[in-house]
Specification:
This protein is an alpha+beta fold and 68 residues long. The protein is 25% helix and 38% strand. It has helices at 16-19, 43-55; strands at residues 4-11, 26-29, 33-40, 60-65. It has a 4-stranded antiparallel β-sheet, with helices on one face.
């Protein structure tokens, strides 16, 4: 199964230190939110990423699967 692209939006501007924790993702920082884009191999990896966001105390706005 090929990896699937995802876009994950979180509230607030994430620092370079925090975005570096998501090294396989590209971060786009805007005034009120940060968007992370990257590929996820499976549901297990997605859940792990969501747990990482939660452990950092980040507020999740949206998780969107990108069209291939």
């Amino acid at each position: 199964m090929a990896p699937t692209g995802y876009e994950i939006r979180v509230k607030g501007r994430l620092s370079d230190t925090v975005t570096s924790a998501f090294e396989d993702f590209t971060a786009s920082v805007k005034p009120a939110e940060t968007t992370l884009r990257g590929e996820i191999r499976d549901q297990s990896e997605l859940h792990g990423l969501l747990e990482q966001l939660q452990s950092l105390g980040l507020e999740l706005i949206e998780v969107r699967r990108l069209e291939q």
